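Long-time lurker, first post. I've been practising inverse folding by hand and with some scripts of my own, and I keep getting stuck on stretches where the structure tokens seem ambiguous. Below is the full token string for one chain I'm working on. Before anyone asks, I'm not after the true native sequence, just a reasonable design that respects the backbone. If someone could post their per-position residues I'd love to compare against what I wrote down in my notebook.
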């Protein structure tokens, strides 16, 4: 259906304001159904309702951004040596498969779907098997917006069957994937036979560097949710805190106090800051890492228990854990735990902070905290991550590129950068000879 819609349907051939109008309508309909979609997303993932509301609102913003970007998708004229006129066209790839994870199902579908549709592709969205529901609502929204048949298709099902058949299918021209690094490798293998274009947003082990001149209160208070938000199931989670040895104890005390104050509980409660993990097996995995960290020599400074509150009896709840005295070479500091666990690691000076930060197979995002602007710029330039924040933990802006170095991925989503993920470049030369 997606192939037919691309080859025969109106979508790739619409005039740009017409296609933009569909995307603006999708944004409006998402906003009209925001409360309903956010509730489903919270039931889907277990994430706090206030986060779901923010994410659904941001998904609408994303469709609006790419609706506005449509008239700005254009090529270049190139002064070639031969007599004539040379110019490029940016054209859609064709059928694009969007394979998304369970931790941010709705917003990930928007990050990929909006630029893919804006550039004239047809799409097949495959949500993770734990979290199909909000993707189906996005399908309803697109239908209600009048998007022509076959342009947006949604397939639910396991990655090993539904996902893998998309990744290998000869009629799919591109895979836009977010998920685990190992799954990303499998997708590259599956896509190799038909030389599909592949963009990958993968795992992370993001650093949070606290220098001794930082605003420690601000850093401790805001960094807690930067690692424990979404119950730590966030590719950008600031899960390695590197703290200058002079302020290590002070920062740790402040951070532990803030962690203990986090409201863990029913995700439908608007006050809740940390909900349950996605599944019992995910909680077991995280508990295993907490035990491993202690065996490796770390000290559990707080959390790591299953809460006894009766309100937390139904769900894979876990109190956010802080592991102190961690060495960067320990497995807990190197492997993506994907749960509410922070590793706190001391450093001596700027060079050591940079070296330890870069000693990771990942390079997605990170933060650094200092009042010294020169140091902020020096360190930001030396850190091997695709996204970096100074004196805050914000990784994502719709208008700016997002993606990873090293095993954290290939390509940049969001901003105008994403348009190149979903377009082919055609060069045309017209001879005047
Ligand atoms: P996952 O890799 O298990 O699954 C992601 C998606 O791929 C799901 O839809 C799944 O069904 C599908 N899939 C699984 N096996 C497949 C296969 N062989 N072929 C095709 N599709 C397949 O990831 P997850 O557990 O859902 O999500 C967590 C991971 O996602 C973490 O590693 C996290 O860091 C990463 N993540 C990265 C970003 C980013 O932008 N870099 C954002 C969110 C999550």
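-- Answer (accepted) --
I ran through it position by position. Result:
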């Amino acid at each position: 259906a997606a192939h037919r819609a691309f080859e025969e349907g109106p979508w790739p051939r619409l005039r740009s304001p017409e296609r933009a109008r569909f995307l603006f309508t999708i944004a409006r309909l998402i906003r009209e159904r925001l409360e309903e979609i956010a509730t489903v997303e919270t039931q889907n993932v277990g994430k706090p309702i206030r986060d779901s509301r923010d994410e659904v609102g941001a998904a609408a913003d994303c469709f609006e951004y790419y609706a506005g970007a449509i008239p700005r998708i254009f090529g270049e004229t190139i002064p070639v040596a031969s007599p004539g006129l040379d110019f490029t066209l940016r054209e859609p790839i064709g059928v694009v498969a969007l394979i998304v994870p369970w931790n941010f199902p709705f917003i990930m579908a928007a990050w990929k779907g909006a630029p893919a549709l804006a550039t004239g592709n047809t799409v097949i969205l495959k949500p993770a098997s734990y979290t199909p529901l909000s993707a189906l609502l996005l399908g309803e929204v697109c239908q209600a917006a009048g998007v022509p048949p076959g342009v947006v298709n949604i397939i639910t099902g396991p990655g090993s069957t539904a996902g893998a058949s998309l990744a290998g299918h000869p009629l799919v021209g591109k895979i836009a994937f977010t998920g685990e690094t190992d799954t990303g490798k499998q997708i590259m293998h599956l896509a190799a036979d038909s030389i599909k274009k592949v963009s990958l947003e993968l795992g992370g082990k993001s650093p949070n560097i606290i220098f001794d001149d930082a605003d420690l209160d601000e850093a401790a208070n805001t960094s807690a949710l930067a690692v424990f938000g979404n119950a730590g199931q966030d590719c950008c989670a600031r899960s390695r805190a590197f703290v200058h040895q002079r302020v290590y104890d002070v920062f740790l005390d402040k951070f532990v106090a803030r962690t203990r104050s986090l409201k863990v509980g029913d995700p439908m409660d608007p006050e809740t800051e940390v909900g349950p993990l996605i599944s019992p097996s995910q909680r077991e995995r995280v508990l295993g890492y907490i035990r491993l960290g202690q065996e490796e020599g770390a000290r559990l400074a707080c959390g790591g228990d299953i809460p006894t509150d009766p309100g937390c009896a139904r769900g894979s709840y876990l109190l956010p854990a802080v592991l102190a005295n961690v060495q960067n070479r320990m497995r807990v500091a190197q492997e993506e735990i994907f749960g509410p666990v922070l590793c706190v690691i001391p450093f001596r000076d700027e060079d050591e902070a940079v070296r330890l930060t870069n000693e990771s197979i990942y390079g997605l995002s990170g933060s650094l905290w200092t009042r010294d602007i020169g140091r902020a710029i020096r360190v930001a330039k030396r850190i091997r991550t695709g996204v970096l924040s100074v004196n805050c933990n914000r990784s994502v802006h719709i208008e700016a590129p997002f993606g990873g170095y090293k095993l954290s991925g290939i390509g940049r989503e969001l901003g105008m950068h994403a348009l190149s993920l979903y377009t082919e470049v055609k060069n045309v030369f017209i001879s005047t000879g």
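A couple of notes from the structure itself: The pocket of nicotinamide-adenine-dinucleotide is lined by residues 99-104, 126-129, 158-160, 163-164, 167, 178-180, 183, 186-187, 201-204, 235, 336, 338, 364, 404, 408-409 (CB under 6 Å). The chain has a mean pLDDT of 98. Happy to go over any region you disagree with.
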